[in-house]
Every structure is written in C-alpha cells, then in structure tokens.
Amino acid sequence: DILVDGKVCDCDIVVTCQVGDPVPLQVKLTNWSKHSVGPFALTMMPYQDYQNGVHNYDLQDAITFVGSNTFHIDTVKPNKDSVYFGALLFLYTGDFYLNIKFHEDNCSRELPLSWLCLPSVHIRATEPVA
C-alpha cells in the first residue's frame, strides 16, 4: 500500500500537493506468504515523464527528500506488515512520478534476485494558495 499525503494511491490517481509543503509518504509492505521474506532495500526514485519515452531522473533542483529515499527492511514475517515513512518537498510546479522498488538480496534465494516494482505514483505540484 502506498499513501501520499494520507491518501491511498494507485496508478489511476493523481495526488495534488503544493510547492514548499512537505508531502508525507507511507509505504506498507505486507507479507501474504507462509514464509518470512527479506532482507529488502526499499528505494523511492522521483522522475518526470516527458511523454516521448524519456524519463528525467535528474531532479535534485526540483524535488528533495526529507530523510532518506532508501530504507533497509530486514525481515517481514508471514501475515505481518512493514511500514516506512518519508516525505518529499517539491521546489517547483509540475507533474512528477515516483518509482517505488524493493530489491530482494536474501542469499537463500527463495525469490529470484530482482526488483519488485510497484506502479508509479503520479504527483502534481501546484503553486501555493495565497
């Protein structure tokens, strides 16, 4: 589950926020399997989609993370959750997307070494209301 500014997000929803206001992020990983999983690295990567096949990930002048954009998840037990909190601060207006990826690097290899990607989150940063 992904929450942006307290609202549940999926690929069909555009979340609107204001430039200059920190936007709280929450990512919850739920283990529905019968076995513990992990460790994972959770990485959040913002980008702009130019709608021509080009994704711009060089956004250090437009977006900053409050805290880290990468979290370590040790182990998630069966039928349990692991929740991670962060925040984004938008410095300019525009339409931005957030890739959220889990990298599994457990040496037992119950899962293949891979990126587990969630659908991108669409965030629209607008001018502050005066």
UniProtKB/TrEMBL annotation:
GO CC aspect terms: trans-Golgi network
InterPro entries: Ig_TRAPPC9_Trs120_4th, Trs120_TRAPPC9
Domain Trs120/TRAPPC9 fourth Ig-like: 16-125
A Pfam cross-reference name: Ig_TRAPPC9-Trs120_4th
Protein name: TPPC9 protein
Gene, per the UniProt record: Trappc9_0
